[in-house]
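Exercise 7. Predict the structure of LpqC, poly from Marivita lacus.
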Amino acid sequence: MPAFSTIANRLSALEEFGTDPGSLSADIYIPENFPKNGPLVVVLHGSTQSAESYDTGSGWSTLADECGIALLFPGQKKANNLIGSFNWFQTGDSQRGGGEPLSIRQMITRVVDDHAIDPSQVFITGMSSGGAMTSVMLATYPDVFAGGAIIAGLPYRSADNMMEAIIRMNGYGSPSDSQLDALVRGASKFSGPWPTISVWHGDRDTTVDNSNASSIVRQWQKIHKVEGPPTRVEMVDGVPREVWCNPDGQVVIEQYIISEMGHGTPISAEGDEGLGQAGEYMLEVGISSTRHIADFWGLTRSGSAHRADQQTAAAS
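Solution. The predicted structure, encoded as tokens:
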């Protein structure tokens, strides 16, 4: 039997997932309709948030019930960071094989083993410091993830200490494009295929400047061989979606910059397909990042159909 105990809300605490060098907590949600060899989404909260509050705001467990998705919520402890931020800017917590990244990797291994998850369908998303740690995980463990979604986050290794982190959050001094590329390539010995990248940011974000979104895109463009302007721009729920397609015609990077939105996760809680609940850093803007990210990964009914279309196009 998996080692977890029931706690408040919908999530359950995961215990004994490894050596846990980053001293993190872990919660999981496995819906009743979860199929054998189903997918796993790793969800990283932002500063001042918890796994439970981020799930309530984003609606991930509601979508998990709808689509049969297993969820893992790594959690930061205040003993590690007073405002509950993942330490994405600390050298010891931004490299493969140690610190917070290894703790998250150990959690994933435990959940995949306990719940017969398809290891080729592991995805990761996060907001703010959780978004920056998503960048860390995608760079340091690209062999683990099929895709990642970075919300109001920063590129991998754009900062190596607290002072640099504050400067980068304000939009100053980002590494050059060649440095951004080299940082990812140097983070592991992996040579591909690389995880797909989804980037979300508000154009009025005064906590993490939205120039970081374009830096994240540029960090992954050369790796995915999609340098230059987007392949196309389309409107999704009133928001422009920029996409970059690889030579096989598959979308490997997407970006949403949401007009008039500040710092937080974009949600759409109303209507038949509404998800989540508005609150601090959970922003009702009429588009659900949760649902569209899951679509991009092929985890919803419409997303599965879109992924099948892409695979057909690539094969033709």
